Amino acid sequence: MKRRKIKPPKPAKCFFCQSKQKPNWRNYQKLRDYLSPRGRILPRAYTGLCAKHQRQLTTAIKRARHLGLLPFVIRAR
User: Fold this and answer.
1) CB pairs under 8 A, 24+ apart, for 30-37?
2) How would residue 68 be classed by pLDDT, with cut points 50, 70 and 90?
3) How far apart are the first and last CA of the chain?
4) Higher pLDDT, 75 or 73
5) What's the pLDDT tens digit per position in 29-55?
6) Average pLDDT for 8-28
7) Which of 35, 39, 47, 50 is within CB 3.0–4.6 Å of 14 for a Cys-Cys bond?
8) 19-56 burial, b if ≥16 CB within 10 A, otherwise e?
9) Domain boundaries, the chain
């Protein structure tokens, strides 16, 4: 028997649509909420963002990484 992965419940609406703002690399503290404990970008199924804001979020996180505001990888010990 195959086991199915259970996804976490999806929030009702996109956070950025509700607050009427865009993901920005300058607000790197907020971007940390969308990273896994290992430093990977979380998918839409976990974040609950719409497709447009998920794409903008990915770009903002990548820019913050290149500027040294966010880590590329968090090492587990």
Assistant:
1) 31/57, 31/60, 31/61, 31/64, 31/70, 32/70, 34/61, 35/61, 35/70, 37/74, 37/76
2) very high
3) 34
4) 73
5) 999 999 998 999 999 988 889 999 999
6) 85
7) 50
8) eeeebebeebeebeebbeeebebbeeeebbbeeebbeb
9) 15-66
Residue 32 CA to residue 38 CA, distance in Å, equals 11
Instruction: Name residue 63's amino acid.
Output: R
Classify residue 64 as exposed, middle or buried by CB count within 10 Å of its CB (0-12, 13-18, 19+).
buried
Q: Between 11 and 47, name the one with better pLDDT.
A: 47
- What φ, ψ does residue 35 adopt, rounded to 5°? -110, 145
Integer angstrom CA distances of residue 27 from 22, 23, 24, 33, 59: 10, 8, 6, 11, 13
The yes-or-no verdict on residue 10 having pLDDT over 90 is no
